[in-house]
UniProtKB/TrEMBL annotation:
GO terms for biological process: DNA-templated transcription termination; transcription antitermination. Belongs to the NusA family. CDD domains: KH-II_NusA_rpt1, KH-II_NusA_rpt2, S1_NusA. Residues 139-204 form the S1 motif domain. Signal peptide: none annotated. This is Transcription termination/antitermination protein NusA. It comes from Algoriphagus machipongonensis. InterPro entries: DNA_repair_Rad51/TF_NusA_a-hlx, KH_dom-like_a/b, KH_NusA_2nd, KH_sf_prok-type, NA-bd_OB-fold, NusA_N_sf, S1_domain, TF_NusA.
Length: 414
């Protein structure tokens, strides 16, 4: 293989991999200089000129002419007068000899190795380019096509034919992919494994949700609305705290859009994940109240040292605060940065309770027995019911029920 064929085949391969010309020339020179060092032990006195477009290669060995008896005659950049005159008869001591070295002088084996080295260098460069490309895109959304579905990961292909990996743990639990599907995800990280870049994608990261908001809400993309914090339970629920420094902009309304038009696109991409958008505030009590929405909070007590918050709610609001699967309170805790404890607020009759037998001095025994037949054996259990409930559940007269209520309420007032 002559120099022209070697360089032209390499240049064609390099161009197919989108390698720029200066880099291509540098790689060629590095490889040829490595050949020179292997044959001559040193390449400092060699001039290598490459024209990749024409496939031209010129290698010149440059040596200074010294006297045959000189002590420097064995230096790599020196040549004896006798040897020099074999090249050109009229050479004199002190002149420089430019001796052209043909590629064939390195031997067929060396040329074949150079060819393999060139190809390997391009492949290594290609890996570096791929690594750097996606390293710069960490945290950004990419779109790729599913080409293989494995048990623990889904393999995707970008538009340049590069392999991307979406591990099972980075998939939304409701995700179901088929070969050929277009998938959106963020570049989660880029690892180098045994010299090969491994590009890991994620659809569960809060950053993915943030980027989706940037795509759907111009005010977020332009910086007019800031996303302060996002917490997610992928595929189930997410809470997004937003704020705006422009009083004319309602950050929550802008993120949701007219009739939910903006947020619906995000929800669909996240497999119908329930997204709560709340207005951020430095007022902790108000922030917690908003974070626990849709539950209505009665009162809050915060302990700054232990980073715990006690929240009191009416009985019918407790389940709303906790949410399906406990997601609402779990995400609210993550959002505000405090551990939230939910307590059921006691009504005026729940602070204490008294057995009905304690009222035998004021209420006839047969009335107490009548109440017990319906499962009412404490004062609290009676007072939580309405007069209509007692009329329906017992055979007592309306006046008798009014008297029972008066006696029991008087007890708690005392």
């Amino acid at each position: 293989m002559d120099a022209k064929i070697l360089i032209e085949s390499f240049a064609e391969f390099a161009r197919s991999k989108n390698v720029d010309r200066p880099t291509m020339i540098r790689i060629l020179e590095d490889v040829f200089r490595a050949m020179i060092r292997k044959k001559f032990e040193n390449d400092e006195n060699f001039d290598v000129t490459i024209n990749a477009d024409k496939g031209d290669l010129e290698i010149f060995r440059i040596r200074e002419i010294v006297d045959d008896n000189s002590e420097d005659i064995w230096d790599f950049d020196k040549i004896s007068l006798t040897e020099a005159r074999k090249i050109e008869p009229d050479f004199e001591i002190g002149e420089e000899v430019y001796e052209k070295i043909e590629l064939e002088e390195f031997g067929r084996r060396a040329v074949q190795m150079a060819r393999q080295t060139l190809i390997q260098r391009i492949k290594d460069l290609e890996k570096d380019i791929l690594y750097n490309k996606y390293e710069e895109q960490v945290g950004e959304i990419v779109s790729a096509e599913v080409y293989q579905i494995l048990g623990r990961e889904v393999l995707l292909m970008d538009n340049e034919g590069n392999e991307l990996i979406l591990p099972k743990g980075e998939q939304i639990p409701k995700d179901r992919f088929r070969k050929g599907d277009a998938v959106k995800a963020i570049v989660h990280r880029v690892d180098m494994m045994n010299g090969n870049p491994k590009i890991i994608l994620s659809r569960t990261s809060p950053v993915f949700l943030e980027r989706l908001f940037e795509n759907e809400v111009p005010e977020v993309y332009d910086g007019l609305i800031t996303i302060v914090k996002i917490v997610r339970e992928p595929g189930e629920r997410a809470k997004v705290a937003v704020e705006s420094y422009d009083d004319r902009i309602d950050p929550v309304g802008a993120c949701v859009g007219m009739k939910g038009s903006r947020i619906h696109a995000v929800v669909r991409e996240l497999q119908n994940e329930n997204i709560d958008v709340i207005n951020f505030t430095d007022n902790l009590d108000l922030y917690v109240t908003r974070a626990l929405s849709p539950a209505k909070v009665s009162s809050i007590t915060a302990d700054q040292e232990t980073k715990r918050i006690s929240v009191f709610l009416k009985p019918d609001q407790v389940s709303l605060a906790i949410g399906k699967g406990g997601y609402n309170i779990k995400l609210a805790s993550k959002l505000v940065g405090y551990e939230i404890d939910v307590f059921r607020e006691l009504n005026e009759y729940e602070e204490e309770d008294v057995d009905l037998v304690e009222f035998t001095d004021e209420i006839d025994g047969w009335i107490i027995e009548e109440l017990k037949k319906t499962g009412l054996d404490t004062a609290k259990s009676v007072l939580t019911l309405s007069k209509e409930d007692l009329l329906r559940r017992t055979e007592l007269e309306e006046e008798t029920i009014d008297e029972i209520f008066r006696i029991l309420r008087q007890e708690f007032e005392q």
